[in-house]
Amino acid sequence: MKFRFILSALACLLMAASASAQQKPEPKGPEYEFTVVKELPVTSIKDQYRSGTCWCYSSLSFLESEILRTKGKEVDLSEMFVVGKSYHDRAIKYVRLDGHMNFAAGSSFGDVLHVIKDYGIVPQDVYSGFNYGTEMPEQAELDAALKGYVDGIRKNPNRKLTTAWVKGFDGILNGYFGEAPATFVVEGVEYTPESYRDHLGINYDDYVNITSFTHHPFYEQFIIEVCDNWRWDSAYNLPMDEMMEVMYNAIEKGYTFAWASDVSEKGFTRDGIGVVPVEEKKVSGGSDQEKWIGKSADQPAEEVKADLPKEMEITQEMRQEGYDRKTTTDDHGMHIYGLAKDQNGTNYFMVKNSWGKAGKYEGIWYVSDPFVRYKTMNIVVHKDALPKHIAKKLGIK
């Protein structure tokens, strides 16, 4: 029995070795080689960490690039100043609507512009907003506390709201973020949040919101029906090709833009790539050997490199179907600041993310033209970045 066991074990080892020698090596992921076509100035990569505030990080990154463009000055603006003011306004609206509105961490680019228009802005080093014992945003507790508070208020247990509930809400915000400064000094000059906004030249009316869907007329404005658009801001509706023309023209003319997109697609990797590959069907038939270990046992093992994936051709109808069937949703806000090409000549937009220096490109994503066509929810861009013929169609001067 012992001798037989040894023979049997030896046979198993030989079979395993033979199978291993015949196995096709697993292909490596595609190796992208990017050549930058145009890259516009951006500020440093930030990290929203454990917070649902991509809308704020991306919007302020975009506005920081606008200040670089217009003033030649690099600034770091306070995200939590905006988040706190946004939550204040949202709580009041939520209670007025008896809770029939989204009240969560997410929001929109337009929200940031509203806050800056109404309240101004402050630098990050004046107001970090981390008054709760961490050096990075960790806001699950805050989000839960604020939601519990406004849900208690909206039920109106006294059948008449008190004059204190808004102060109580702001007290929670101040506890977590710290009280926002009424005045502060930058480079020897004293500012208020409003005067600092004016000093930086941020003008709400300079920016336009662009989208592309067929359930509303083109060349008109409509309110994008997503929960995070709680302020009910309107967007100009363009055909897909003209929306893309705006993006390319913006980068060419020196304008970056804020970009909202669905990033739940498997083609949007966590290693800095965004593509929409064609799903190829597996070829049926062939021998059992082909099925499990490749075509020929005689082929020597060698490294197999995967080609860049062929991408889908995107149509306006595909965009609309994604929106209608909820396979395209407003997952994430980012900042587009440049153009590149891969080794096959495909155009990619260069995207600054807010996940810290994550991925192969340390916080930068390369997102293909097909992906942007397919999964863009909306963009916010300076009105002067619009091609003249498109601005004329929209009545924008």
Structure summary:
With 397 residues, the chain is α+β, with helices and mostly antiparallel strands. It has helices at 2-22, 54-71, 79-96, 109-119, 140-154, 165-177, 193-200, 240-253, 288-293, 316-324, 369-375, 388-394, and strands at 35-39, 184-186, 189-191, 207-211, 221-223, 234-237, 257-261, 273-274, 332-341, 347-352, 364-368, 376-382.
Report what the structure shows.
With 397 residues, the protein is of the alpha+beta class. The protein has a single domain (35-276, 308-394), classed as Cathepsin B, Chain A (Alpha-Beta Complex). It is built from 12 helices and 12 strands. The protein has helices at residues 2-22, 54-71, 79-96, 109-119, 140-154, 165-177, 193-200, 240-253, 288-293, 316-324, 369-375, 388-394, and strands spanning 35-39, 184-186, 189-191, 207-211, 221-223, 234-237, 257-261, 273-274, 332-341, 347-352, 364-368, 376-382. The strands form 2 sheets. Strands 1, 4, 5, 6, 7, 8, 9, 10, 11 and 12 form a 10-stranded mixed sheet that branches. The relative contact order is 0.17. The model is unreliable at 1-24 and 280-304 (pLDDT under 50).
